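Q: Hand in one record:
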Amino acid sequence: MKENYIVCNCKQVSYKDIADALEGHSKLEDVIGLFREVQAITHCSTGCGGCHDKVLDVISEIMMA
């Protein structure tokens, strides 16, 4: 189940945490802007940064669905 998938190991941010942070956004216009917003809410990709691309992929997947 995607909701239990940990995207950022350093900060223990799950797929669901990212989806929750994106709530209220209806379409993908600025993935970097959305990334910064998700980062501010969840603190993902603020540790080692190794999940940066995974977080962008999850944002894109959620917003394109």
Summary: The domain at 2-64 is CATH 1.10.10.1100 (Arc Repressor Mutant, subunit A). Strands lie at 6-8, 13-14.
